[in-house]
Write a structure and sequence with these properties.
Radius of gyration: 16 Å
Number of helices: 2
Order of helices and strands: EEEEEEEHEHEEEE
Structural class: alpha+beta
Strand content: 25-35%
Distance between the termini: 18 Å
Shape: globular
């Protein structure tokens, strides 16, 4: 993480033990979601977090239990986990994957601003090509949200780990922003997902 020289990280499935007594990871201020990962019994994983080298202007109420949101330098940031295909338990509600994704998206759209937003995390959907982790119905709900939030998602064309599908982890930035680069960073020792870094 330090080697990437990022000012801000949007993390998912964060182990609470990584956060020190001052509420930091390394030198990053942390805003943590209230939601706890429920798929692993006794899990100590938080669902989402926003990390920043700069102080937060404010910490926003979780727009969904699997999200964390904060304001940094006047810009709102939101980190989210959307349901994967086999996810059936809370905090997602619905009788099938598309409905569970739709419910999460509706909660986010009710609370997230529609301008100057950075939204990212483990969306569990490729936005193009074959769908492995999510569903086509779920993807359509995600794409609808991206349009309503006026976002450009530069991670769309990158690959997921193993190169068998397109990225399912994403970062969306305002359409008006200039994106200098979008890169996948191997994170084999930390996670079963790689990291994605934007320079804007």
């Amino acid at each position: 993480m330090l080697g990437q020289k990022c000012d801000i990280w949007l993390l998912t499935e964060l182990n609470r033990k990584w956060v020190d007594g001052d509420g930091k990871i390394f030198d990053f201020q942390c805003h943590l979601s209230a939601g706890i990962q429920g798929r692993i019994k006794g899990s100590n994983q938080l669902l989402a977090a926003v990390l920043s080298l700069q102080a937060f202007d404010g910490r926003l109420p979780d727009p969904h239990p699997a999200s964390a949101a904060a304001i940094i330098n006047g810009i709102p940031y939101c980190s989210t986990i959307l349901p994967w295909r086999s996810a059936k338990e809370t905090p997602w509600v619905g009788s099938n994957h598309s409905e569970r994704t739709e419910g999460a998206i509706k909660s986010l759209l009710k609370q997230l601003p529609t301008s100057d937003l950075i939204w990212g995390g483990d969306w569990n959907h490729s936005l193009i090509g074959r769908e492995y982790a999510g569903s086509i119905g779920g993807r359509n709900h995600v794409l609808d949200a991206v349009e309503k939030l006026k976002l450009n998602v530069p991670t769309t064309g990158l690959s997921h780990r193993g190169d068998y599908c397109h990225a399912i982890d994403h970062i969306g930035v305002p359409m008006s922003w200039k994106v200098e680069s979008a890169t996948r960073i191997p994170a084999v020792e930390l996670s079963d997902h790689d990291a994605y870094v934007l320079e804007v």
